[in-house]
Amino acid sequence: MPPRPSAAPSREQRHRRILAALAGDPTVRISALATEFGVSAETVRRDIEALSRAGAVRRTYGGASVTHAAVQPVFHERERIAVAERARIGAAAAALVTPGAALMIDAGSTTAHLARALAARGFTGTVLTNSLAVAEACTAAPGIRILLCPGELYSVESAVYGAETQAFLARFNADIAFLGASGLTEEGISDVESRAAWVKRAMLARAGRRVLLMDAGKFGMAHLERVAGLDALTELVTDTLPPPPIAAALAREKVRVILAPPSLG
Q1: Least packed by Cβ within 10 Å: which of 61, 111, 148, 225?
Q2: Which residues, other chains included, contact 207 with Cβ-Cβ below 8 Å and sequence gap of 6+?
């Protein structure tokens, strides 16, 4: 067993780096990852098994491969992946909000972290959301007016979708729309769920600032449905600088990239 150096990545950091590696290469080898991380092959094997149970990767002989473009882990499983990174992103996004703002917040694990950060800051303002998790998190702050979209409940995402959801959103204007997505490439943002893609488009159409929240493990991943091009965004909040091709495409569309500060803990 190779010795674990003092700077060896934590479990959550390894999970994020495995997903980031798969974004650039459809398959990765356990032996290569063990060498890169300075840990045992058995440690990496357990990491891949955990990601496989969550639906984020597929186990292969000696390594892992990406999942299909139309598949992603359900909401409660995604909540256990890259938790620290998503919490940092949520906190950085919350810092963009001023008191009294009207926000649209998309359903997703990272946007749920944003809602928790807003509540912790004592935000006073309005939140329109299709996410049960976002709405529940906002109840912790009495100064938040919560408008929960109508629609058909999709239990695996803890959110509502459909024509009623989109029509409801079209009635309102927001200062900022905060969105998550399954992947980001030079062509834009994509998602595995058509129902989610339509809600995201509805929110993008109703807000002056349009902010994507995304951890680095999703960079370079193109999923089933293209939601919008990069020109639909005004900002990206993430934990790591995007790869050069994506960074260049974001710069061309004048999308501001905001890096979440490192954790102090």
Answers
A1: 61
A2: 104, 173, 174, 175, 176, 177
pLDDT tens digits, residue range 1-46? 444 445 688 888 888 888 777 765 666 788 888 888 999 988 988 8
Distance (Å) of CA 147 to CA 101, 206, 210: 13, 15, 19
In total, the chain counts a number of residues equal to 265
Tell me the C-alpha distance between 110 and 124, whole Å: 21
The identity of residue 254, as a single letter, is K
Token pair listed for 158: 């803890």
Per DSSP, 55 falls in state: T
Q: Which two tokens stand for residue 5?
A: 């150096």
Sheet strand arrangement including 188-191: 183-185, 188-191, 225-228
Per-residue pLDDT tens for 159-192? 999 999 999 999 999 999 999 998 899 999 999 8
DSSP state of 156: G
E-state strands within the chain: 27-29, 57-60, 63-66, 102-105, 125-129, 144-148, 152-154, 159-161, 174-179, 183-185, 188-191, 207-213, 225-228, 235-238, 256-259
Q: At residue 184, what is the residue type? A: L
Nearest to 236 by CA among 89, 133, 105: 89
CB 243 within 8 A of CB 220: yes
| Cα 98 to Cα 237: distance, rounded to the nearest angstrom | 17
pLDDT digits (tens, 9 = 90+) for 83-138: 778 899 999 999 999 999 999 999 998 999 999 999 999 999 999 999 999 999 99
Contact 140, 117 (CB under 8 A): no
Find the largest Cα–Cα distance for the chain.
60
